[in-house]
Structure formats: C-alpha cells, structure tokens
Description:
- By secondary structure, this protein is an alpha/beta fold.
- It has a domain at 45-174 and 286-306: P-loop containing nucleotide triphosphate hydrolases (Rossmann fold).
- The protein has 14 helices and eight strands.
- Helix 1 (4-19) runs parallel beside helix 13 (270-284), helix 2 (45-58) packs across helix 13 (270-284) and helix 8 packs across helix 14.
Amino acid sequence: xxxxxxxxxxxxMLSKQKGGELKKNIKSEAPRVITISSGKxxxxxxxxxxNLAVQFAKLDMRCVLIDADFKTSKASALMGIEPxxxxxxxxxxxxxxxxxxxxxxxxxxxxxGGAGFSELSVGTNRQNLHSVEDSNxxxxxxxxxxxLDDISDIIIIDTGTGMSNMVVDFVSAxxxxxxxxxxEAASITDAYAVIKRAKEQNADLPVFGxxxxxAESKSGGDEVFxxxxxxCNKFLGVELxxxxxxxxxxxxxxxxxxxxxxxxxxxxxxxxxxxxxxxxLLVSLDTKDTSFQVFLSNLIKKFNxx
Length: 306
C-alpha cells in the first residue's frame, strides 16, 4: 500500500502529465534521462541512484537504472543482483538493449553498462564509431537501443566519480544532471572541478541540480550548496538548482549490509522520506524531452572529441 507521501507524489505527477507540464507518461515519445554524478568517491552516489529509481518505480513509473561506473559498479551490489549481460553485449555481441535488461527491486529494470561505455570510450570500437558518416555501427547501435525509449518513463544513469574524461563526457552529454556532494571541503572542490570541465566542453550545459548528502539539517545543506553556488556563478557563469539534502541515516548501512535498497527495507526512514521530497522537486521542474538515443549520440560525440 502506498504511503500518504507516495500518493501525494503520484497525484502530483498525474496532474502534471494531464496539464502537459511534465510531458512524461507511458505514451510519451521520450523518457526523462537523469545523470547522477559526484566529484568525489564515497559520497553515496550509487546509493542515491538505486533508491531514487526504486522510489520512482513505486510510483508506477517505468524506471531503468543504468550503471555506467565501469570502475566500481556498486549499484548491482546494493540491490543484490548479478546481471547476466551488460552493455558490452550490445556493443560487441548480438544482443539488443532489451536482451540485457535485468529485473531489479520494486520492478525497476537494470542495465550493467560500465564496461560497454568504457569500450566506446577507449576501446577499438571508438575508432569504428569515429563519425556517423563513415560508419554503419552507429545506426546499428541506435537500432539496438531504440526499444529502451519505448519501454521507460525514467532513465537514471549512475556515472563514475572523479574528473576523468569519461565522467565529464557523461555529465556534459546529459540534458538533466543531478550531482551529489557532502559538507566536506574536498567534495565541494571536486564537484566544482567537474562542473568546470563540463562547462568547457558544453557551453550550453544544462542547469545542475545539487543535492547535499549527510547534512545535519536543511540550513546546513543550504549553506553547503551556497558555497558551491557562489563559486560556480562567479567563475563559471553556471546556474545551479538547490535540490535539498539527504540526512545521515543509520538505516543506510543496515540496508547496504542486507544488499537491499533502504527505501524498500526501511520505507519510513528519514532517507526514504527525503528521496520522496527530491522526487517531488524533480517533478516540479520544467524539463525538456530527450531520449536515450539522443543521450548516447551526444556521448559518442564527446568521446570522439577528446
């Protein structure tokens, strides 16, 4: 049974859909693609990606979570699943995107993608995908991934961490970015560095949504956000959205040990409620339509320009 908060969110989403403001429903031509990143490892990025996907799915949204962190790939471990295939099987094998979908908790669909994206970035396929004009592999790849846009309402991409070319490429290729930071000075500095590099690659960089994890309070989270916002406005001319904060919650560690999302194991926890608030804020934003095909096309162009 849905909680009162979940029912409220679902009603909000339905009202937005009927009013044409959200432009994301089951009959939509394109899903909403959200990239989740962080400048520093260990800030809870994959945990956020998993639980955000679960909370969207609990609202009857068809949600796909893509693990694009080819170094650590924490998302599958946090859900306790071992996918049989990965995005690499689409790139090098005869699989389509629907062939590699794995069932995740709460009905989410999961794609293990890191190794495949890494192959596009630095492997032999990168040369083959150098340009649309001289390669049929781009069109073949588009054919393989096209069904994903038809079967999903929300696509969440868990990117890598740090300032590598690949992470920056993902961030600059996306149409909607959510970056997780913590009150630590190193986290704020590294987040600024990622945004700076992404801005250098994409002058029309979409507005970044900034979420503060492990903040002691809303005012504490606002203070951390303000530090990053001042630097980005002054030196980069980049606009940021304050997406709130996630509190420290002891249930997170318990859920990690149980290999289950905290939003399922402890649906009434402080973190679960905070993610519901995040979804409410995401729903209220005016976002432009996109698709995974468009995102991947932008990503490949970024890879080839490095």
